[in-house]
Write a structure and sequence with these properties.
single chain, six-stranded antiparallel beta sheet, four-stranded antiparallel beta sheet, 7 helices, 19% helix, 32% strand
Length: 283
């Protein structure tokens, strides 16, 4: 390290002899110790046990008042921790050993008293807003499964929801109208469940095109669908589809009735690459 006077000379400082004497007699400042990096939020207590085929099943997934409980694969736990509110496209997570998807575990975790007030907010948030849950799951996976990951940009084959040749045929929602009871969607729409024995139609109210795309996911043959219509606003939508009662599956949406269609597209997204993971040791 350069002497003080040398540093000041380099800076072009002009000092009196008394000022020089004062600087020379001044003890060197203490070098501050960097503040410790705050630990990532973590569950206070975690129990992970292999699911027993003939044993009691852990209900869930559930955000409990004081913790979290689920019976799942570690692969799905990683999915929840890193890709909330995303469909389980296999390409989302790369480098996964086979046991990561096949082996099931009963996970019961408890939060500390210090985290309780923030934790209780998680249940009322959208999946992508449950930051505390995601951070705690990531900490759990790093500690118990020695999980090490990194992210890479890539693309996945999917479909874009676009306007058809003859333009859209959509009914704008009426502002202030009371919405039907149903599943709330991210942009404010409401999806009303199909009634048993009723017509094979999707009924969505006050929906954006992004809401419609989310309802159509996980897409065609599990290939995701994204909104590329360029349409803004909210709409009341009735979308007919072919329903196979034998398999309980939706086989085809009649988007042409809305003046919309799907076209193949490469969708950019971020994959999670597993560098290292171990089976969790039983408690």
């Amino acid at each position: 390290m350069l002497p003080k006077l040398r540093i000041l000379a380099l800076l072009g400082a002009s000092l009196t002899s008394s000022a020089v004497a004062q600087i020379q007699s001044t003890p060197p400042p203490r070098v501050g110790i960097p503040a410790a990096i705050p630990a990532a939020p973590a569950f206070e207590v975690v129990s992970i046990r292999p699911t027993q085929p003939d044993g009691p099943r852990v209900s869930g997934p559930a955000i409990l008042p004081d913790g979290y409980r689920i019976s799942t694969s570690i692969w799905l736990a990683i999915q929840t921790a890193y890709f909330p509110n995303q469909w389980n496209w296999m390409d989302r997570i790369k480098g996964a050993p086979s046991w990561l998807m096949s082996d099931r575990y009963d996970i019961t975790a408890k939060v500390s008293n210090a985290d309780l007030s923030e934790w209780m907010r998680q249940k009322d948030l959208k999946p992508e807003q449950r930051v505390l849950l995601q951070q705690m799951l990531q900490s759990m996976l790093a500690e118990r499964c020695k999980l090490v990951v990194h992210r890479i940009p890539t693309t996945i084959s999917g479909f874009a929801l676009v306007v058809g040749k003859h333009g859209p045929h959509l009914t704008p929602s009426t502002p202030g109208t009371a919405l039907a009871v149903g599943m709330k969607l991210s942009d404010g729409g409401v999806l009303v469940p199909r009634k048993r024995g009723g017509p094979s139609e999707l009924h969505i109210y006050n929906a954006t095109m992004a809401d419609l795309a989310s309802v159509l996911n996980p897409g065609v043959d599990a290939h995701p669908i994204v909104d590329k219509t360029g349409l803004t606003g909210h709409f009341d939508i009735v979308l007919p589809y072919d329903y196979d009662p034998a398999n309980g599956t939706d086989e085809h949406w009649h988007l042409e009735t809305l003046g919309l269609r799907l076209e193949p597209v490469a969708i950019p997204f971020i994959s999670l690459v597993i560098d290292h993971v171990e089976k969790p040791a039983e408690n």
